[in-house]
Amino acid sequence: MHVSVSVIRGLRKYNFVSFFTFGQTGVTISTITTIHCNFHFTRVLHVSTSSSTMEQEAVAEVNSPESEEKTTTKEVTESGKRKSEETGDAEKKGRGKKRRGAGGKKLRPGERYVPPPQKRNPGVSFCKEHFDETDYYFDGGLRKVRPYYFDFKTYCKGRWIGKSLLEVFKHEFRAETMEYYHRAAKEGRIRLNDTPVEDLSVVLRNNDLMKNTVHRHEPPVVGRPLEVLVDDGEVLVINKPASIPVHPCGRFRHNTVIFILGKERGISELHTVHRLDRLTSGVLMFARTLETSQKLDQLVRDRQVEKEYVCRVEGDFPDGELVCEEPILVVSFKVGLCRVDPKGKESRTVFQRLSFNGKTSVVRCLPLTGRTHQIRVHLQYLGFPILNDPIYGSSAWGPHRGKGGQVDKSNEELLQALVEEHRSQESLLLLDIPDNAVGIEQESEKNKTSEKVETSDGTSELHTSGEIHQSDTQGPTGCSSGSETVDKVSQICTDPNANNTSLESEADQSTGNLTKATTQPETRDNLCSECKLDRADPTEKELIMYLHALRYKGPDFEYSTRSPDWAKEDWVETEWSLPDAD
């Protein structure tokens, strides 16, 4: 008789064929043993003999529970189980050794254990847990976010290794006083590897995960709803209002397109096709699926997507078609500052004047390449900066304001002058950097070697507001294009562990529905310096830049919006007012 037995153990597979005989019957059983590595069981595959009678007896014997206990098959199974248990014990012992310290080494007396860095999960998207951290309310034509608690996280950077937490806070997080950090530590808001830190003299080691719980305030944005132009299951196209960032960055999280769509329309898992500056309005496309994202990304890379913008610039723009082909160089990744420079990347924009009202001109813009701030930089170079451009219309560029590339400052001096100008006007928000913009000089030094702002595995970035900020993997968001999932927790974003804030009933401005919520006062925090300030609402000049993405056209699609009111020929600046949220 021939018996085939399969023994499966673990992941790797090995087959063994063996023969053994049942005493005087002369029945030979052949076993096929398949071995992997972690577990073990036996299954009889085939029984055969030269005699049909012997075959029936053997089959009955093999299929009988009582006889199975007596067969060699069970011995093989028990042997496999013993080996599996031994392997499991060995693995447990190995894991136990690893828990002694990083890399499995035994910790020395007084040595602190640092767990290995957590693996990023790029498939985790922003979800209801994140959207429910807080909510909006509308006031004076503005969309405002109720303050909420949030965990900023970052891994220990190379330059911090061997330094104490106190040293790092003192030299790199200078927006808050040392008294604040000591009080925050005593209240358990500062954690190292998920363990509250009361003594800031603890020395940082490689892979230390730092967390700082803050009471987070977000700047208000225009209260206009997000108008959905197309949503066909493959693409989502909206008309983005000015002042709203595309996705979380800097001080913005809930007041972003991604969060507004998630909170008010339940839309998530979107992929960017292109990006718009925070102060720019107009056509904004997202891909709904990875396949569509890859397709559109390839069209953008192959320059098969035609982009048309309209803007209002200072002065009388020349008639006819004007082409600018000056190369563009990024000066600061933190501020998103660029300038015309021979060392920059090839850039080409076609301009055409549409109208002139005696002070300002409406200009049609066709960017043929996709550089950061391309339209804004080229118009500045031509001597016609966009109206209300807080960067390229600034006097920090000097008397010529960058016309013709005339800048009597180094990149470092220009960056510092720009920060100082907006700090004096208390308008650093326009640069999308914190109010206390220390560390800009350090970034300028890094840009000398064309290095980006240092990040830790793309999960966090050192901002200068005295907080540990998420990076959200966002670089400058000008006219550049690139397909990526924008609502993933990584990036630019680790999972927050925030407390929900009580809400009031407010009208959902996108759908017109009433959002039910409890009516309790907003939270105020005893350590939060922002809670002690009474900030004035931003003005229209701080929220609107006169640049609008009018149309995006590909081989088989075309998406467009109506022209903004400020693009009308007879429009004058004094007529402008914030849109009503109702």
Automatic annotation (TrEMBL):
Single GO molecular function: pseudouridine synthase activity
Protein name per the record: Pseudouridylate synthase RPUSD2
UniProt similarity note: Belongs to the pseudouridine synthase RluA family.
Annotated NCBIfam families: rluA_subfam (TIGR00005)
SUPFAM superfamilies, per database record: Pseudouridine synthase
Highest taxon of source: Eukaryota
Keywords, ordered alphabetically: Isomerase, mRNA processing, Phosphoprotein
Organism (species): Pagothenia borchgrevinki
Organism placement in taxonomy: Eukaryota, Metazoa, Chordata, Craniata, Vertebrata
Biased amino acid composition, Basic residues: 94-107
